[in-house]
Amino acid sequence: MNDGDGGARQTARPKRADARRNEEALLDAAAAIFVRSGVEAPVRDIAAEAGVGTGTIYRHFPTRADLIIAVYRHQVEACAEAGPALLATSATPHAALARWIDLFVDFLVTKHGLAAVLQSDGAGFETLHAYFLDRLVPVCAQLLEAAAAAGEIRPDLDAYQLMRGVGNLCVGAENDPRYDARRLVELLIAGLRLPH
């Protein structure tokens, strides 16, 4: 179909603001359920948390993998945006770092579930992993630099290594109720502080 001046009419329109908000609310609800119950949680639980019908979820995300990938991307963006906001509002850069790492741990719960869902799509998972690194390593580095500049932590900490260490502490936590990964991560972040 032509638009009158010889060009093809665009079929994809930007989402309305209310549609974007509704989708973000749905993704927030799905993320909360995934953190509490894992990525295999029933869609009806996600729908109840979001205050929508299950049909609404399937209309936006036809498969569970579509929903998990969308939650993953949503959480990456939320985590990336949270870093500067936490630096601006926290009492100290170390406090901002600790709060950001707590958000990162929530994200890792979904990421581990994503790995299981996408086992058959190695290239797709690698693309998402690269996106995750590109967006989050610089944010973690900014938080570490601010805490080091304030004299709260050592200046020689590497963002990628810290994120990898936090990730390693979280591996397998969902399979063992006696293993409290979040508590170990808290101890790790507390241990970054320089003695005063």
Name its key features.
196 residues, mainly alpha, Tetracycline Repressor, domain 2, globular, transcription cis-regulatory region binding
Return the average pLDDT rounded to an integer. Answer: 84
Portion of residues within helices: over 70%
Tell me the structural class: mainly alpha
How many DSSP E strands? 0
The coarse overall form would be globular
Keywords: DNA-binding, Transcription, Transcription regulation
Pfam families: TetR_C_43, TetR_N
Organism: Kitasatospora kifunensis
DNA-binding region: 42-61
Description:
Mean pLDDT is 84; it is low at 1-11. It contains eight helices and no strands. It has a domain at 64-191: Tetracycline Repressor, domain 2, CATH 1.10.357.10. The chain has 196 residues and is mainly alpha-helical. It has helices spanning 17-37, 43-50, 54-60, 64-89, 93-117, 122-149, 159-170, 181-191. Helix 5 packs across helix 7. Helices cover 70% and strands 0% of the residues. The termini are far apart.
Which helices and strands occur, and which strands form pairs?
Layout: H1 17-37, H2 43-50, H3 54-60, H4 64-89, H5 93-117, H6 122-149, H7 159-170, H8 181-191
Describe this structure in a few short sentences:
This protein has 196 residues and is mainly α. The chain has helices at 17-37, 43-50, 54-60, 64-89, 93-117, 122-149, 159-170, 181-191. The chain has a domain at 64-191: Tetracycline Repressor, domain 2.
